[in-house]
Design a protein that fits this description.
It contains 3 helices and 8 strands. The chain is globular, with a radius of gyration of 15 Å. It has a single domain, classed as Nuclear Transport Factor 2, Chain: A, CATH 3.10.450.50. The chain is α+β, with helices and mostly antiparallel strands. Strands 2-1-6-5-4-3 form a 6-stranded mixed sheet, covered by helices on one side. Strands 7-8 form a two-stranded antiparallel ribbon.
Length: about 150
């Protein structure tokens, strides 16, 4: 099992999700009861049924999108578990908007081997924009307070 090949498949699956199709993306996840998902649109969910439903609802909010790039900030792999921390730059039409919107995300992904392939057991993605700009440098604490 090659984690880098899995991450390449994940990028392709993410592009499908950004086009409004969750099916390929859902194949990247464990279908077990301990799988968890925290995405920018919904509360954290646990268990395959809830994760699958949340991914479908997420795909309904996205269209005409693609991954621009994704950079692994940190990656650690053991035979039993792997984690990847990454920064992703994507774009898509979101909700009812007719405009393509750039989206910058921080993501933490935990994977484990299942049936000879790496599967996501936890994914936490968060949009890294506060008040009109991406977080690319340290900010004062007050920058997260809505005005």
């Amino acid at each position: 099992m090659d984690i880098d090949k899995t991450l390449e498949k994940y990028k392709l699956a993410t592009t499908e999700l950004l086009k409004g199709n969750a099916e390929t993306y859902k194949t990247m996840f464990s279908h077990r009861d301990d799988v968890t998902l925290s995405n920018p649109f919904f509360p954290t969910v646990r268990g395959w049924d809830k994760v699958s439903e949340t991914l479908d609802l997420t795909a309904e909010r996205l269209r005409d999108g693609e991954v621009i790039n994704s950079i692994a900030v940190s990656k650690y792999v053991t035979p039993e578990l792997a984690y990847v921390v990454s920064l992703a730059h994507e774009k898509a039409k979101i909700g009812g908007s007719q405009d393509i919107t750039p989206v910058d995300l921080r993501a933490t992904m935990i994977l484990r081997p299942e049936d000879g392939t790496w599967k996501i057991v936890h994914l936490h993605g968060e949009i890294v924009h506060f008040h009109g700009g991406p977080i690319t440098t340290p900010r004062p604490p007050e920058s997260v307070i809505p005005k």
